[in-house]
Amino acid sequence: MRIVITSGPSYEPLDKVRRLSNFSTGELGTLLAEGFAQAGHGVLCFRGTASTFPPPLYPVEVVPFNTNDDLASSLHRLIGREEVNLVFHAAALCDFRVSEIRNEKDEAVHDGKISSRDGALHLTLEPVPKLIDTLRRLFPSSILVGWKYEMDGTLKDVIEKGRRQIDDCLTDACVLNGEAYGPGFGMISRAGEQVHLPDKAALCRFLIDWAERTPSALSTPRQESFHALASFMPLAPFI
Question: DSSP secondary structure string, 82-135?
Fold first, then answer.
């Protein structure tokens, strides 16, 4: 199969020497890319240049990106998108970008390197369009897997947001994690699969197996579509 994985953090510039980003290291996307490659699949990994985890090993093909727009442009330029079997959108993209910077005198600041001697700054942040909203148009025949990382709320809240992502973005599955989810990872699919994985290694093993049986599993959640779940912990309570 041909697999596309987005991985690691993006960033948005504050000035020409500073940027806004997040704590993503790129580890999970890298482990997933290496796992698929070791299983004999062709893997293209779009990887944030700010990732601190070592890049995936050969034969994974790595395409670096910086900002959200940079990643979006690279995906649009990708030749042979119709041949991609699965897309795993694991990248931690910025939710906001700087739209305006003003100083204490309420003057707009446009310096290439803003000096701290000029005092406090007032930043206006604007929401960035969600890349996952466009993936179905870019990959109309691919299996799409999104991520839902949540810090606040309950397990039930995370599950509901994951299901909403599947419905709103026309994806096929969603990986759940973050403090609101709790230790480990969850995976829910449009076909009805619901599973908890204790760590990144277990998640990667499961997703590789799931990808290899997904075409039949997507049509309807049959008994055989759950054959690989026996070694994993059920997600409970699962609302």
Answer: GG--EEEE--B--SEEEEEEE-TTS-B---SS--GGG---EEEEEEPPPGGGGH
8 Å CB contact between 99 and 108: no
Condensed to tens digits (0 to 9), the pLDDT of residues 128-140 reads 999 999 999 999 9
Q: What is d(CA 233, CA 239) in angstroms, rounded to the nearest whole number?
A: 16
- At 231 the pLDDT is 37
Domain annotation for the chain: domains and CATH numbers: 2-94+130-231 (3.40.50.10300)
Where is 185: in which H helix or E strand? strand 185-189
Q: Element (H or E) spanning 183, and its range?
A: none
Lowest-confidence region among 85-94, 170-179, 189-198, 209-218: 209-218
pTM value is 0.87
> Is the CB of residue 52 less than 8 Å from the CB of residue 136?
no
Those residues with Cβ within 8 angstroms of residue 41's Cβ, 6 or more apart along the chain or in another chain: 1, 2, 3
Gap between the terminal Cα atoms of the chain: 33
145/211 Cα distance (integer angstroms)? 10
Question: In the prediction, which pLDDT does 179 show?
Answer: 96
